[in-house]
Amino acid sequence: MPGTIPIGEFAKMTHLTVKALRHYHRLGLLEPRHVDERSGLRAYDADQVRPARTIRRLRELDMPLADIKDLLDAPHPVDRDRVLLAHLDRLESGLDRTRLAIAGLRRLLDRPAPGAAVRYRSVPATPAAGITRRVRRTEVGPFCEEAHAALPDDGTGPLGALFPEVLFTEGVGEVTAFRPVRTAAATLVVPAATLAVAVHLGRYEDLDETYGPLGAHVTALGVAAPGPLRELYFDPELDLDARRTEVCWPITHAPR
Amino acid sequence: MPGTIPIGEFAKMTHLTVKALRHYHRLGLLEPRHVDERSGLRAYDADQVRPARTIRRLRELDMPLADIKDLLDAPHPVDRDRVLLAHLDRLESGLDRTRLAIAGLRRLLDRPAPGAAVRYRSVPATPAAGITRRVRRTEVGPFCEEAHAALPDDGTGPLGALFPEVLFTEGVGEVTAFRPVRTAAATLVVPAATLAVAVHLGRYEDLDETYGPLGAHVTALGVAAPGPLRELYFDPELDLDARRTEVCWPITHAPR
DNA sequence: GGTTGCGCCTCCCCCGAGGGGAGCCTGGAT
DNA sequence: ATCCAGGCTCCCCTCGGGGGAGGCGCAACC
């Protein structure tokens, strides 16, 4: 006689609420062993307690239900481990993010407004090897790292990236990671521009600290121009805190 | 001339999306310096970049917008620190939760089904000192700890708690933390009951591992009875992993 | 024989922090 | 004259359920 445990009893055994159990049923995550056709009453079996407990533990790790489903459906323990490890990686990077945010917050509270030394520069159109992909702003770091690693280097210039304005206004856009190369090896042309440039020292995650003063400077002078922003990375191999990055904001002309 | 930076420009400076900025405006979290009455166009000022960055950092810490508002509105740095520390505590406890979940998951994957040794026992109505409060299941641990610390002890019996069925089925209910005392000092009576009892060794957070087999046992015998479940805590002063807890499930009668 | 009341059901709306997109307005460039 | 960029509002969607309304069937109680 399959399915003998009513949902309320099952809830007590698993410490999952009735609401949650019905939700998991609807999603096909944990189907009661038997559902009465007339009344719709759910009936569970004792051997479903373990999967239910697994779900509960994974939810305590904030794993999305879709991933939990994948994990439970995976027939092979290897696949399960893969999903699990992927999630633990996510947790880990969330932790990193938290640590960085705390560090940034501390700087924000401790220091007064830093201000930025801004220079102006006109650059010609430059042939480069590059990779373009539509990414969210939160994924820019990993994308650039990956893309830059895949680019050739013939010593023509530093690594860089182009960020369209929509990336900032809408949070997603076509980012181009590039490195200048001799014309023969180029896959794209970094457009000519007149730029206001500020130097950022430190982690890439803290670049907003330089964008603020730079942008304020540019708009205060009324020389802001449309077009993608760009960043140039001079010491990607150095320690996180020692990296020098140029942030370049398009302008119509160098003031005065 | 207050308010000169349009929202898109401000988004580039702060790395907040236009959507997010409008959302913060609606909530009164970050009001543009100026809003055109006719067109509704928002205009920000350069000195709003810093508060915006603060918001961004706090959001990276998953602080709720309401708390961020409190923090920004707090005139006194002491108040700010209080809100901030409270949030860091929350993060910390979230981390604890994660660690526990990982440990529980490991046990779940490593060990086969543990099974539970179940005994039966009838207990008489017992006078006790107790505290009752409506709590969510996730807050049961802190509540019991706090309540038990406030209860008198005359050596009559071990600490315990009563959990109504709705606590499990709906996730919230009136929990009673108690300790048996001589009649004169009693504030409530723990009701008489016939109980199926299983012993749990280890952390309170892992008690569901004992509820499962115990409940399965009880329902398999068909002797489940209505009424609150109870737990008795024998070694609350021992190390987390060494604590002995009796989980008591109401039954109609001891089988055979 | 009513009438509670429990345990279960479905259905709908709600949260938080925005994302996605439709549809409109306005100003500047072509 | 037309197009587009960039702004606006409004509405629906996400995810993991919580809260509650309203209904069904069964058991116990008066």
Overview features:
homodimer, 256 residues, alpha+beta, 8-stranded antiparallel beta sheet, 3-stranded antiparallel beta sheet, 24% strand, DNA-binding
Task: Provide structural commentary.
The structure is a homodimer of 256-residue chains. Chain A has 256 residues and is α+β, with helices and mostly antiparallel strands. The first copy, chain A, is 39% helix and 24% strand. Chain A is built from eight helices and eleven strands. In chain A, β2 and β3 form a beta hairpin. The relative contact order of chain A is 0.11. Chains A and B meet through α1, α3, α5, α7 and α8 of A and α1, α3, α5, α7 and α8 of B. The structure holds a DNA duplex (30 and 30 nucleotides).
Main beta sheet of chain A, described? 8 strands, antiparallel
Whole-number radius of gyration of chain A? 26 Å
Helix content of chain A: 25-40%
Oligomer: homodimer
Strand order of the largest sheet of chain A: 4-9-11-10-6-7-5-8
Tell the overall outline of chain A. Answer: elongated
Question: What is the largest interface, and how many residues per chain?
Answer: A-B, 55 and 54 residues
Tally of strands of chain A: 11
- Give the terminus-to-terminus CA distance of chain A: 88 Å
Instruction: Classify the secondary structure makeup of chain A into a structural class.
Output: alpha+beta
